[in-house]
Amino acid sequence: MWPFQEPVKDGIWTCSGSPIVPGYVITDHIRNGCNGVGPWRHNLARVGLWTCPSSPIPAGFRAATYSAGGCSGLGAWALVRA
Question: Residues 43, 25: contact at Cβ < 8 Å?
Fold first, then answer.
């Protein structure tokens, strides 16, 4: 196992291309890190989280309000109950 791999947990940062575990959403992005690609924050889905573009939306939730400044300027959608 590589020294930087960790089991998934709420709030973990991962590089682009890492799998998104069922029940988790992408909630933030930083432009530097991961050799210039930038890491993404994974959080357990819950009402009120802001999700980044291309984040899966788990069953029981839907994307609602949009914020252009979310996810470091990539845009974000608020999670609400379906």
Answer: yes
